[in-house]
Amino acid sequence: xxxxxxxxxxxxxxxxxxxxxxxxxxxxxxxxxxxxxxxxxxxxxxxxxxxxxxxxxxxxxxxxxxxxxxxxxxxxxxxxxxxxxxxxxxxxxxxxxxxxxxxxxxxxxxxxxxxxxxxxxxxxxxxxxxxxxxxxxxxxxxxxxxxxxxxxxxxxxxxxxxxxxxxxxxxxxxxxxxxxxxxxxxxxxxxxxxxxxxxxxxxxxxxxxxxxxxxxxxxxxxxxxxxxxxxxxxxxxxxxxxxxxxxxxxxxxxxxxxxxxxxxxxxxxxxxxxxxxxxxxxxxxxxxxxxxxxxxxxxxxxxxxxxxxxxxxxxxxxxxxxxxxxxxxxxxxxxxxxxxxxxxxxxxxxxxxxxxxxxxxxxxxxxxxxxxxxxxx
Length: 377
Prior knowledge:
12% helix; mainly beta; 13-stranded mixed sheet; 3-stranded mixed sheet
């Protein structure tokens, strides 16, 4: 059982400061979404009434410089006296609803600042690891700290052969590079206020699992709902030929269901290595690559097709006794052997109101069957 739950709002044009009391009194609800695919975002709804002479010209909240677009917003939740940064981002949108007397501000995490300016840039003699680090460090003013994991099949460019060229925004280029290897790129708030971790690498599936989600277990049930889907059309293999750029020799390209460098799977029966009669197979059609580059891109396509089993549901933080974090592991129990076990937390949406804290969650893994007889309760 939680002992205390508190929300802190920092807001301002450059260095955000604690919100004034009258703004906190007007706050009605907060939504924060974390995902490993798209930019994370937030939405804050305030009561916007016009009740005295100070509102004669316009709504008081709209005259505040604090709520202007591209002001920085930091949200912290304190659960059992342990603070955590829920969001560090920028306001991108306002919505006024006079009929409901509400003003809603919407924003995105700090990566939105990486998606504003398209560029044409060269990165001579730098591989994807160094390019990602270089780009992230140019946004240090937003507290971005790079966490870059080298690809499993490195291919550093020789200047006499090729030079990586960027056409587009920094964010689009980082995501395009990540997609080649089945990697993800996202900006995670924290670990302390006004800092952000910019992660470029494979989905994070290391570390201790979070407290288990219990379903259909009587008084031990701690989720309000959790449904499971098994999509046989998700697994994807890649095969074909590539004319090696260095030797001009056609070489076979074939992705592996479970490459040796991949982390141990979360399931005992991954869909790609079952006797599944039909598996989606894509033809490799890229050219101008070395065999090594072609294998890395083919494997990236297979690795990214990992959401075979999806679990979606909702939990009450007060009942769960913890705040579930996205981009990590969590155990599930009470759903039977096929769907019990460990999952990757792909998406979490925080829904916060006075005296209420709920989360909508999306979990994924590559197949059915638990790899462990028990999970951490």
